[in-house]
Amino acid sequence: MGLEQLEMETGLNKVDFSIKLLQTWEPKDGYYLAFSGGKDSVAIYDLAVKAGVKFDAHYCVSPIDPPQIYSFIKEQYPDVQWDIHARNFWKLVDKKGLPMRQRRWCCEIIKEAGGENRTVIVGNRRAEGANRSKQCYVENARNKKLNKILIRPILNFDDFDIWQYIRGNELPYCFLYDEGFKRLGCVLCPFSRDIEREERYFPKITNLWRLACGRLVEQTKARGYLDKRGNPVKNKFETKDEMYDWWTGRK
């Protein structure tokens, strides 16, 4: 039914409900709007404008985002503030290991960084996965030390709704979507389903991941194939390519 579908609890359509949600929870100091440059960010930014609420938008700079995202934000959203929380990202890869689906330490310093002690607008949607299907429109951040309240105005939007909203309001979006990308964000994210396309489009970032694999392999060899706790490693990789292929194969 798209954006015209009514919310059972309120009788409002999806857009009106989102706007009402933002207006209801508007804090005195205004919202912190988490802006990644993807389609969901474009939607929540416009909804915040339509709601007439006070907000400041922030992009947590990711060293592994597509360069096209950088250009898009600079050209189309010059008011977005660029916050750097991951200056030593590659050193952290050397220390913590490659991000995995079950161990995505990278999200803490990139996607979840920023907005401490603020009410934060985020673009999470239930349609994106099992974990997000359990999320609420308003709730405290999991990391209580950050003291953040999360507001999810598009939680009930699916992909069709997002594109209906973007095109219906003639909003700008990154051209990579028109070239076949379904999602934009960290290149070679453990949840990526289109590894070959990302490798082809973003060779420099791909090479940085390969180099990181090489450093990790050499570290493990130097320890006699023991992990940092002194236990035997499960996989005895000889080359960076072996580790990289294993990692991108999501084994």
Automatic annotation (TrEMBL):
One of its GO terms (molecular function) is catalytic activity. Residues 32-190 form the Phosphoadenosine phosphosulphate reductase domain. Transmembrane segments: none annotated. This is Phosphoadenosine phosphosulphate reductase domain-containing protein. It comes from marine sediment metagenome.
